[in-house]
């Protein structure tokens, strides 16, 4: 069926976001209960004051995870956390998940129990109910598809599209660590593959490895913002890297931004390890993915409330769209932000 | 990680339903908004009179579909329909879906467009909005994961657990055709593989092929029942075969049943083609899957309203649990229903 086509366009000519845009550009929503469809961290549905938030992700072995160094329990935990992060990114609270898995006969019941132990641990920690799913066989690797459902108030949902000129740009936690954790795991895997007698050297990298293998979603920040009566004007979670998410947010809001290299929050271990790998730490923070922190904007009048918050860093401000999307380096030079994603993480001396 | 285990239990020792039961038996629901979790066609969530229905399915190339004879447009359509069927089986109406796909570079943009043309056609026909999803790469085949969301009134949702003694057992449409459609496709594939010069002979099997390749979900029946003010005491959709679904329904309701072989609704093409394949037509109706018809029970007082309905057949009645789950053959003999699924479909002369 597939080979019949004479006009063949390769998918990589569009990229993931281009493909989604192409496939969904003609959607006409039919239901008044569909408040927000494709194009944000989650869809919003419902009729009244209280709305439901729905988001879904699919993870495939060999593409999203490598079972040679990812323990199944951690994988289950992380798979849930990635989805919950998308719910929190709408300024909503997750309540339910469904979990579908496809398994080959390579997996034993004990292996599946490990995976579910991680899934249930995340459900416990984030207070969500596992309410359904599908279990099926796979001819090759493990596939995990999770849908998360949350609730929020219609008027306090934060979309990608609400940022306005002069808003402050904030990020939670610190950036770049999950990416460097992955670099360490990949390096040690390579050493092991080259010589199975050499044991992996993972010592001293606890923080980076934990950020990669067992990330957390920022439910605490959503609760904290509610406590401070702050409703972000826009929000997105940082799964593909800060640059990529900033570009999504600015394009959806039809604004520009200036962010400051010196403000990017990084753990000292990120700075040190990036240098060990001959990488620029700022590039890791900007383009390394899987941090699952939140990127959001607030009205500048909220500055006092946030300026000394240990969990939140103000990294810049929103500008008019004409100003473009820029990163200002420590020496005052301005560079256009590019969503290179992980491709950008070439070694400096390459 | 997986190979470390000394105690290895193979997944096929439990089977799919055993595995789900094992993995979910200790769930304690935390949210009052979770009205029904794992264990029915869909989960039910919400707070008020109007509730949300959530169901999800994952389909994998090589396990659930074979692209050598399934057109991508049909596949997209069917993938949506399977999920919607689970929503209708709760006596609810579907309003939204999310669609996640994983693709290898074997697929061109034109192929993906075909798949989505089928997805959008089903959205149009069943009046649902595509509101989100995920698009990712796959190292091997195509994976499709769909979540459907619907709405219903809390007091008219039909669970698997509500059937009671003397209720009438009803099925919609006819059974066995999708299974026989698959047999024809598999036969012609084999002929073609053995000798590529022989063209597939699919003539005269339009109904069976359509039931396999482009099934429909019974939204019409849900609307019809509402119009007749009938609320089924229990309901389930027939995806794995009537026997298997009847057993689910009876076990969940803690009842037994007597169903009559002579009442099983079958198209004449099913009877004819089953014989051509040396199969028992009743076995095809009982154990052939993918019909996506509805199996439901109603109070016996509804008999008058349903007895002459062309879309609904009364095939038996519910008994006390002690009576067991039985099929009564044309010669009056009683056999225990077994959920053999497709394994039961051995040729009669084997």
Describe this structure in words.
The structure is a homodimer of 350-residue chains. Chain A has ten helices and 13 strands. The radius of gyration of chain A is 21 Å and the shape is globular. The N and C termini of chain A lie far apart (43 Å). The longest helix of chain A is centred in the middle third of the chain and has 18 residues, at 109-126. In chain A, helix 2 runs parallel beside helix 3. Residues 1-5 and 341-350 of chain A have low confidence and may be disordered. Chain A has helices spanning 15-24, 72-88, 109-126, 177-194, 206-213, 219-227, 242-253, 268-276, 281-287, 303-306; strands spanning 34-36, 43-45, 50-60, 93-103, 129-137, 143-153, 168-172, 234-238, 256-260, 293-298, 312-319, 325-328, 334-336. Chain A is an alpha+beta fold and 350 residues long. Chains A and B meet through helix 1, strand 3, strand 4, helix 3 and strand 5 of A and helix 1, strand 3, strand 4, helix 3 and strand 5 of B.
Condensed summary:
Chain A is of the alpha+beta class.
How are the SSEs ordered, and which strands pair?
2 copies of one chain form a homodimer.
Chain A: H1 15-24, E1 34-36, E2 43-45, E3 50-60, H2 72-88, E4 93-103, H3 109-126, E5 129-137, E6 143-153, E7 168-172, H4 177-194, H5 206-213, H6 219-227, E8 234-238, H7 242-253, E9 256-260, H8 268-276, H9 281-287, E10 293-298, H10 303-306, E11 312-319, E12 325-328, E13 334-336
Parallel strand pairs in A: 4-5, 9-12
Antiparallel strand pairs in A: 1-2, 2-3, 3-6, 4-6, 7-10, 7-11, 8-10, 9-11, 12-13
